[in-house]
Amino acid sequence: FRQIFRDPSILRIILIMPVIQLLILPWAADYEIKNIKLAVVDHDHSEYSRQLINKVTASGYFILTDYSFSYEHSLEQIEKDKADLVLQIPDHFEKDLVKEDEAKLYMAINAINGTKANLGGAYLRNIIQDYNKQVRTEWIQMPKFSSETQIEVTSSNWFNPLLNYKYFMVPGILVILLTMVGTNLTAINIVKEKEIGTIEQINVTPIKKYHFV
Questions:
Q1: What's the pLDDT tens digit per position in 113-158?
Q2: What is the pLDDT of residue 147?
Q3: CA 125, CA 131: separation in Å to the nearest integer?
Q4: CA-to-CA distance for 117 and 165, rounded, in angstroms?
Q5: What confidence score (pLDDT) does residue 65 get?
Q6: Are 88 and 107 in contact (CB under 8 A)?
Q7: Residues 115, 69: contact at Cβ < 8 Å?
Q8: In what side-by-side order are the strands of the sheet with 36-42?
Q9: Closest CA to 36 of 99, 98, 117
């Protein structure tokens, strides 16, 4: 405690620095990605394609930054960092979905930012799957009793129901800060004693090395 109150910088390291880091780092260490820039290439211009685009943009994860009729134009948007994902809706999308019972979509992801690409692609695939279920439920005639066995798994989070990452990160950051501050204080004190010559004075005293340690 004498050493701590002798040096004002140590008090700042102990009190001010960890408090500031605890206030800032939980907001920065967030694994949830929103505002993903999406470019849409719509060759179908049908009611189904508009519903799909509205569902994607209404999810809260994507921002529609480009709507064009050319895939090459959308790739230019990715190269200019104005888009992260490209969703291409082919011709006859609505016709194939209703009459042929299947339709294909093309998705291109900018993988320069790997985390954003993987999460953005996963978000988009989940939204498309949900839209597929919605369309089949509303328009496609399904049998009353399905012979296929379906198992649906549902889960709930007990201690963090909203999956707020700050509840995960604050305890971990607190432990890391305690470890770092303790290690830094030890190193700072030893360097300080060496700078002012205390260690050299101890070396010339008639004590054993293990006493000093």
A1: 877 888 888 899 999 988 888 887 776 555 555 556 677 778 777 8
A2: 58
A3: 10
A4: 20
A5: 92
A6: yes
A7: no
A8: 62-68, 36-42, 85-89, 106-109
A9: 117
Residue ranges in the chain modelled with pLDDT below 50: none
pLDDT at 67: 92
Measure the CA–CA gap between 24 and 166, rounded to whole angstroms.
Answer: 11
Residue 56 contacts residue 87 (beta carbons within 8 Å): yes
Neighbours of 162 (CB within 10 A): 7
User: Rounded distance, CA 81 to CA 65, Å?
Assistant: 11
pLDDT at site 148: 62
CB 17 within 8 A of CB 182: no
- What long-range pairs does 57-63 form, CB within 8 A, spacing at least 24? 59/123, 59/127, 60/34, 61/33, 61/34, 61/35, 61/36, 61/120, 61/123, 62/35, 62/36, 62/37, 62/38, 62/120, 62/123, 62/124, 63/35, 63/36, 63/37, 63/38
108, β-bridge pairs: 86
Q: Alpha helices, DSSP H only, in the chain?
A: 2-6, 8-11, 17-28, 47-57, 71-79, 93-99, 114-138, 165-195, 198-203, 209-212
What pLDDT is recorded for position 119? Answer: 86
7 alpha carbon, distance to own chain's centre: 40
Residue type, 4: I
- Is the distance from CB of 60 to CB of 35 less than 8 angstroms? no
Are 87 and 62 spatial neighbours (Cβ–Cβ below 8 Å)?
A: no
Q: Which two tokens stand for residue 15?
A: 């009190």
C-alpha–C-alpha distance, residues 169 and 157, integer Å:
17
